[in-house]
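Here is one chain, start to finish.
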Amino acid sequence: MSNIAVYPGSFDPITMGHVDLINRISPLYDQVIVLIAKSSQKQAMFNLDERKILIEKSLSHLKNVKVDFFEGLTTEYMKKNKAQVIVRGLRAVVDFEYEMTMANMNKKIAPHIETLLMFASPEYYYISSRGVKELAVNGGALDGLVPEVVVEAMAKKLKG
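Its structure:
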């Protein structure tokens, strides 16, 4: 049986915090699936296909990472793909409360699936996709916040 972890999120766009976390978890699992969630609650800058391409380019150095998208419960996706662990990143105390609630909900509906909470590296804990988009829209520099391929894609997207 393969040891498969799923790292779900909107990744709109993928940030250096996401990349750091995926770099750190990839040696721990046979396969890591970066699962792009389709959220009706968020206004996306990039569509699902664009996000998938940006993530694949940002993580091309990791051979055991796959990028996919799914609409519905992450636990259902995991069952279909025989994944055992949901990986979530923690930046601040506020994240912990939300993630603990989600982990307990997931445990209730899928008792065989575990949640692994990983702390963001100190140099990335303040980065969020929402903050990056706000900075980009207002002409701020994105160096060190997102992979270079994302900097280019955001500039192109904002130019029209």
